[in-house]
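2024-03-11 09:14:02 INFO worker-7 job=invfold-0412 stage=load source=structure_tokens
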């Protein structure tokens, strides 16, 4: 019987990922403790309390009690769900993630609802934005949907990532051309939104003769163009304004079509 108890306890601790507690448990059994007593005292071991801290945090919150076996099954179902939907390994499937959901009483069914909602929002996104998002980040649909799983953690990331994608999509759809992820990210951190991006890139597209003209030492670089229209560098804004003025002076109608509401360009329009 004692050998059976040793085998049961050893297997149990291995299953729990607590093999380091096996020597402690074997010593307790050798000293005459029963298997049930060892199981009870196991709860007081720091390693056990760390591994199954969700149990104790739920107790502190007055939530219905759960067992270690329940935690293991919850983690298994949770991991299977995330993999089934193609979410990336390492996202939202770490022990701390499972603990947080258990402590917040988030069922696997509720988690599935969040995942499905994430895919629904993804599918409802403008195709040009979604394609740009994927192009910039080399992401699968599952990885994209992962951004919509945890509003508290991911909302700022979602907002900037979507805005970055919208900026990139605006650059492509207006004919300005593809911009790099770093360029789109830079514009989003400057506070450029989708509407401003569309307006600005449309203006730059119309102003191609101006920015490409051999004025002030040659054509403006793309970096200078982006900074002039969207950035906070007055030097580049002033350079573009001077170019527009020169082209107007020699009667180039394209120079009079540029107008935007961003600070620094109010009033620049048709002469």
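2024-03-11 09:14:09 INFO worker-7 stage=emit residues=271
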């Amino acid at each position: 019987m004692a050998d059976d108890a040793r085998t049961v306890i050893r297997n149990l601790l291995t299953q729990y990922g607590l093999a380091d507690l096996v020597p402690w448990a074997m010593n307790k059994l050798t000293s005459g403790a029963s298997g049930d007593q060892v199981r009870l005292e196991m709860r007081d071991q720091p390693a056990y309390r760390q591994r199954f801290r969700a149990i104790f945090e739920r107790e502190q919150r007055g939530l219905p009690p759960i067992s270690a076996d329940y935690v293991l099954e919850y983690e298994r179902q949770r991991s299977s769900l995330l993999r089934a939907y193609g979410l990336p390994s390492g996202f939202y499937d770490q022990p701390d993630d499972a603990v947080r959901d258990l402590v917040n009483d988030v069922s696997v069914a509720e988690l599935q609802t969040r995942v499905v909602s994430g895919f629904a929002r993804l599918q409802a996104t403008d195709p040009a934005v979604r394609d740009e998002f994927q192009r910039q980040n080399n992401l699968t649909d599952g990885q994209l949907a992962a951004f919509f799983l945890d509003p508290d953690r991911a909302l700022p990331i979602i907002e900037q990532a979507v805005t970055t994608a919208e900026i990139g999509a605006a650059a492509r759809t207006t004919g300005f051309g593809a911009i790099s992820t770093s360029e789109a990210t830079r514009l989003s951190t400057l506070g450029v939104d989708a509407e401003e991006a569309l307006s600005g890139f449309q203006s730059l597209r119309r102003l191609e003769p101006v920015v490409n003209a051999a004025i002030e030492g040659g054509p403006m670089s793309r970096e200078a163009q982006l900074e002039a229209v969207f950035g906070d560098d007055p030097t580049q804004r002033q350079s573009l304004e001077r170019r527009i003025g020169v082209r107007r002076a020699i009667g180039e109608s394209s120079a009079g079509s540029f107008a935007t509401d961003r600070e620094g360009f109010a009033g620049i329009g048709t002469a």
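2024-03-11 09:14:09 INFO worker-7 stage=report msg="The longest helix spans residues 151-173."
2024-03-11 09:14:10 INFO worker-7 job finished
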